[in-house]
Amino acid sequence: MSDTTRFGISMSQDLLEKFDRLIRKKGYTSRSEALRDLVRNALIEDMWENESGTLAGTITIIYEHDAHGITDTLTHIQHGFHHLIISTVHVHFDEKNCLEVLIVRGKAQDIKKLYEKVSSPKGVKHSRLSVTAII
């Protein structure tokens, strides 16, 4: 027997039609699948905002590798947060820029600190954080 519980919801016809269009656009097989994803996303966002639970994610950084000391600075920061970093990927994006992806796992507040530290040095052109959790 499955641990799935069925329940009903009410919404306006207009909202339901918009939701159904979104479901088709994204390729969901059912309204239930789409609702489960929405609930999971809301729960993960709540974990992030309330800095609770263990999250995993990626921090992507693009930086100019010739910027004075940037490579050493980023390496030093990463060593200070070694307990969060599972793996890194370094790509020579073009002749002047590097792309680095940090795969992280830990508490939200610690991931936020790491993200702020690696995003702020001079020479970092762009950074992006993406987090998730098993819900």
Automatic annotation (TrEMBL):
Cofactor: Ni(2+)
Keywords associated with the record: DNA-binding, Metal-binding, Nickel, Transcription, Transcription regulation
Binding residues annotated for Ni(2+), in chain numbering: H79, H90, H92, C98
GO molecular function: DNA binding; DNA-binding transcription factor activity; nickel cation binding
GO terms, biological process: response to nickel cation
Membrane-crossing segments per the record: none
Annotated ranges, domain Transcription factor NikR nickel binding C-terminal: 56-132
Pfam (any one): NikR_C
Keyword Transmembrane helix: no
Domain of life of the native organism: Bacteria
Entry-linked InterPro entries: Acetolactate_synth/TF_NikR_C, ACT-like_dom_sf, Arc_rbn_hlx_hlx, CopG, CopG/NikR_regulator, Ni_resp_reg_NikR, Ribbon_hlx_hlx, TF_NikR_Ni-bd_C
Residue ranges constituting the Ribbon-helix-helix protein CopG domain according to the UniProt record: 6-44
Cofactor descriptive note: Binds 1 nickel ion per subunit.
Family recorded in the similarity comment: Belongs to the transcriptional regulatory CopG/NikR family.
Role of this protein: Transcriptional regulator.
Protein name in UniProt: Putative nickel-responsive regulator
Species annotation: Fervidicola ferrireducens
Record lineage: Bacteria, Bacillati, Bacillota, Clostridia, Thermosediminibacterales
